[in-house]
Amino acid sequence: MARYASIAIAMSARKNTLRVLVLSGPNLQLLGTREPEIYGKETLADIHKRVKARGKELGAQVDAFQSNHEGDLLDRIGKARGTYDGMLLNAGALTHTSLALFDALRAVAVPCIEVHLSNPEAREAYRKESKVAPACVAKVSGFGGDSYVLALEGLLRWLARRST
Ligand code: DQA
Q1: What is the pLDDT along the chain (164 residues), one digit of tens a residue?
Q2: Of 20, 100, 116, 162, which sits with the fewest C-beta atoms within 10 Å of its C-beta?
Q3: Spatial distance between the Cα atoms of 135 and 98, rounded to a whole number of angstroms
Q4: Is residue 104 a contact partner of residue 78, using CB atoms and an 8 Å limit?
């Protein structure tokens, strides 16, 4: 963990605090009560709190946003260039359908980590394909709410590696 901290400190010494946007898509506002045997009992607000706290420890400011509307997610991604150093995206079911999210990620070229609480590849056949994966630098899935925290740590390491 000290390694993550030193990476973030080194990066924030070179420029201002890193900024990370965390986006969550449809039905993720229901976490806590939504199929807890698959998604766990943690609410999205709890997860956001944990990711923001971890970001603070590592020298990154984390903004978090959830929407059930594809267009709202597209608007946030569309404005990300120049504001955010990186993004985490749990697109929910839009993961498996949205060419528009793929296009938006490619268009802004802000490094993005695909995030899932469950492990979609181990579930129904229709969850095996991710439309957004080819526009992301990595994916973290299957760790419940920890997927978001692990993805943040991975993103910061990825950014540190790119900047050296
Ligand atoms: C999910 C996996 C998706 O297949 C599903 O539609 C979701 C949640 C996850 O976090 O595990 O809504 O993205």
Answers
A1: 455 555 554 454 445 799 999 999 999 999 999 999 999 999 999 999 999 999 999 999 999 999 999 999 999 999 999 999 999 999 999 999 999 999 999 999 999 999 999 999 999 999 999 999 999 999 999 999 999 999 999 999 999 999 87
A2: 162
A3: 12
A4: yes
Give phi and psi for 113, each to the nearest 5: -105, 125
- Residues 102 and 135: beta-carbon distance below 8 Å: yes
Cβ of residue 55 lying under 6 Å from some atom of ligand 1: no
- Residues marked active site are found at 39, 116
117 CA distance to ligand 1 middle (Å)? 7
Query: What number does the ligand 1 atom closest to the CA of 147 have?
Result: 10
Centre of ligand 1 to C-alpha 76, Å, is 20
Ligand 1 center to 115 CA (angstroms): 9
Residues 154 and 115: beta-carbon distance below 8 Å: no
